[in-house]
Amino acid sequence: MTLEQTSLDQQQSLIIHSDQLPDFFLTAQAEAAAQWDSLELPIIERMRYKKWPLFTQTITSTRTRQPANPLDDVTLDLLSNDEVAARIIHYGNETYLDYIAQDLADKGVIIQDLFTALVDHPALVQKHLFSTLAPLEDKINAYHTAYMNGGLFIYIPKNVEIKLPIETVLVQDSRDELAFNKHILIVSEQNSQLTYLERSATVGDHANSATLLTEVVASAGAQVKFVAMDALGESTCAFVRRHGITYDDANIEWAAAAMNQGNTILDTYTELKGQGSASNTNIISIANGKQTQMVNTGLLNVGHHSAANIFQHGVILDQARLSFNGIGQIVKDAKGADAQQESRLMMLSQESRGDTNPILYIDEFEVTAGHAASVGQVDPEQLYYLMSRGLSQTDAEYLLIRGFLGQVIQTIPSMQIRQQMVEMIDNKLQLFHPGNL
User: Residue ranges of the SUF system FeS cluster assembly SufBD N-terminal domain (predicted)?
Assistant: First the structure.
């Protein structure tokens, strides 16, 4: 497997010392560095995380240990064997372009690490960067902007349809103290289509933080499928934020498996700005051990006849805590809008804690909206039925969990990624029922 390496070591110094990066970005970083510590944390309903160690690393305090082989066993486990349009690997502070189809460049598609794109395409990046995540909006955004040490820029021109997925692997290098603040910017122009696959993992067990921020801009008629499998390590405290905006008749489909081992906030938000635009957010999560996970999902209906749906299912093991917020807002004059949400949690331990918090804000009469939420244990009647057919209690619980989470898994386009999700579920359940599955 041949790699084209783009080193971010030099680009880190460019952030601080060089005038090659555009002024708008340097100014944004300088303002964020000066103000982040005085800004407030974003308000997450039913979640207190002020004491979480999210701001322990800065670029100036980090050390870089380049992997002897970026395609080590951990990275190879994350790579799919499916055919892809492009594959990008982020390993610590390094970015490796593993593969990109030749016809993409011929069509005007841009896939670059973010700092290179800032130098090569400053006007294009400036038009869209920070359009859904303002640098000074809160403490998370400002810290991330000030100490950003990697990222990716994907640009799909008008009327270009990419049939194969674009695959990104994010490997956090926690063998040393090292910031992991990555920014992904995806721009899908008018009537374009793409599928983006992202997977994350951690190497090493040093206690590091991570801020992974993503912006998705779907222009009129664009169709974007965003698939993520988050699996950062137990020693990582993470804030994962994915925000998107849809214009007329555009669509963003979010599908995520929130499987980090450490304390995590996953914040997903879509503004349906255009008429007839749509967005579905499908999330599964398993919390185990003593970890805390918060899944905070918001949808804002602005355009006429915009349609939004939140579908969240989670399983809680051991002494873990898992909370689902589902927030739907329909603004005034968003006539014909539709906002639906469902959040359900299954608890497999008496010591676990689960919360679902459905919220609807509606400022228009001619709309439809609804919500469903539940927190409970395995259905005893379903469990009895399966056990009456000869299954053990452990196997019966496993089948019920698989069915409970399966609707999100089936939205994943890659068979291998679906299998990896199932294996990840199995690994978490093995910790709960060692040796039985």
Answer: 91-166
